[in-house]
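Protein in question kept in full:
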Amino acid sequence: MSDELKQQETLRAGLKKAPSELEIADLFPLFVPTSFFELGNWPGPYETLGIPGLGLTWAVLQPDQTMRYVDHRVQRHWDAEGIPWRERAVANVERQSVPNVWTHEFRREDGSLFAVAMMHPDGVGPSRLLLRESLEREFPDGYLVALPEMSCGLVLSTPAMGPERAEIMGIVASCFRDGTRPLVPGMHDASGLHGKPSL
């Protein structure tokens, strides 16, 4: 069986699982384009965020690099069980990110860090942008964020100088232009990662 067929089989099997069969330990927050929600038929909870075009939803990671988006039936099950699933999702990201919140570093000649990139093998690198405490420790003077592609997130130190900013902006533009799943262009204030839940 080809990898593609195997993924399709795994995806179908995941969709057939009852809510009680889904592992809360595999739940992750997921940044997606707001265009996913614009038809009004998105099957589960979501938030529209402060960065134009950026939304947040949740998915349960499955084998063979597949995932199942959380639908309202799964949400109702976890709510009935008293599971704080939004908080658990962020905790899962944190657990899976030890020891590496990011995968790539950008340093000055003196060794100081001015930017990082998140391109993790699990495919949800940008979810690490929600780990504010870890990022604020590394960038105490503030930072900007970029989510050019659904599997790529970047952080740039606010005090970064012209050539440093230009280097990271070039990467962001390239990822957005050439990525298989473009998300949002440009650099943004980290406060834009917060938003308003759907009704």
